[in-house]
Specification:
Elements: H1 2-14, H2 31-43, H3 50-59, H4 64-74, H5 86-97
Helix pairs in contact: 2-3, 4-5
Length: 99
């Protein structure tokens, strides 16, 4: 039920005109941006906490986009970040995280 609620809330945000599910590449860089993206990943139930998501990113920043995109793809959420496939997703996340 939580997953359905998170999915519905995310879909409502995505469809609400100016709202963007993930921050744009022009958004603030660094930890704030990582936390914002991780908050969305947690709301999609791809990670259990923001801390888990951020720590995975910081442990291996070059591998994080591929891992996160696999999770998004496995759950059918690639479209929420504007990606058509995992390659697009990796490029988008690398731009967001600056690596």
């Amino acid at each position: 039920m939580k997953k359905i609620t998170a999915l519905a809330a995310s879909a409502a945000l995505a469809l609400s005109g100016g709202a963007v599910l993930f921050p744009s590449a022009a958004a603030a860089q660094g930890a704030t941006q990582q936390v914002e993206v991780c908050q969305q990943m947690v709301s999609l139930q791809l990670y259990s906490s923001v801390g888990q998501c951020v720590s995975i990113f910081r442990a291996n920043p070059s591998a994080y986009p591929a891992k996160a995109c696999k999770r998004l793809d496995d759950q059918g959420f690639l479209g929420f970040i504007g990606a058509v496939n995992r390659g697009d997703c990796v490029q988008i996340l690398r731009q967001l995280f600056g690596n």
